[in-house]
Write a structure and sequence with these properties.
mainly alpha; 9 helices
């Protein structure tokens, strides 16, 4: 598989996850966190099976995108469930939030090593198949052990969700293709310009919505704005590092 196709196996998940994360949170608010959490695990488990069975780059990329959709449903609903379970005790909530915050970096770091072990001792599809018993176990107990979570009326901003996802996709497309067709080529410049235009359109949509996916007022909070900048810079360095370190170690 060419390096460009390999990068899309990685990017398809990230784009779907990042682009639909706000939609997943809104769905959890409207339909209940437990219901969206379970739906996300159904999607993630089925997509993991599809990714392991995929025999072409296109099918692999589609399955990875579906995994990202499932994760975009799971992450915000899991946080809502955590707040529901531990929100009555500030000390317990602080502990739970610490574990929640540590789960992503710990899981990501362990996954890099364990993925290598599975590939070496079994085969590459097992990096996806390993999700199947975990997903089945979660689906077996989630309905009985987790609270439904509070619901509130509202509408899902489908246009906003599609706009931000399209913006991310075109932006990544411009960057991934640029080394092959040139950074100053028409294709790169057009893709980048359309991506920026869609980002601007998304912000305009959110500014006009009475119940937006992303309330723009949160960016006026100094600490939150600084945190977002730090996390954006961290992601810009960390995510490519994972991709290229894997290729280098191979």
């Amino acid at each position: 598989m060419r390096c460009g196709a390999l990068s899309w196996v990685f990017n398809a998940y990230v784009i779907a996850f990042g682009g639909l994360l706000l939609v997943g949170g809104k769905l959890a608010d409207i339909f209940g966190a437990r219901r969206i959490f379970i739906a996300g695990f159904w999607i993630l488990t089925a997509a993991s099976l599809a990714a392991g069975l995929a025999n072409t780059p296109t099918l692999e990329i589609v399955a990875r995108a579906a995994q990202g959709v499932g994760a975009a449903f799971i992450a915000p609903s899991a946080l809502t469930l955590l707040m529901t379970l531990f929100g009555h005790d500030k000390r317990e909530l602080a502990k739970a939030m610490a574990f929640y915050g540590a789960a992503a970096p710990a899981g990501g770091t362990a996954g890099v090593f364990l993925g290598g072990v599975l590939t070496e001792w079994l085969d590459w599809p097992w990096v996806f198949y390993v999700n199947l018993p975990i997903g089945i176990a979660v689906l077996a107990v989630a309905g009985r052990l987790l609270p439904d979570g509070a619901r509130r009326p509202g509408k899902v901003d489908v246009v906003g969700g599609l706009t931000i996802t399209a913006a991310l996709s075109l932006g990544v497309l411009a960057i991934v293709r640029a080394p092959e067709i040139g950074w100053a080529s028409t294709g790169t410049l057009v893709s980048a310009a359309v991506a920026l235009g869609l980002f601007g359109l998304f912000l305009g949509i959110q500014a006009r919505r009475s119940d937006p996916l992303l309330p723009l007022s949160i960016f006026r909070t100094p600490d939150l704005a600084a945190g977002n900048i730090v996390m954006a810079l961290l992601g810009a360095a960390w995510v490519p590092m994972w991709f290229f370190v894997n290729l280098y170690l191979q």
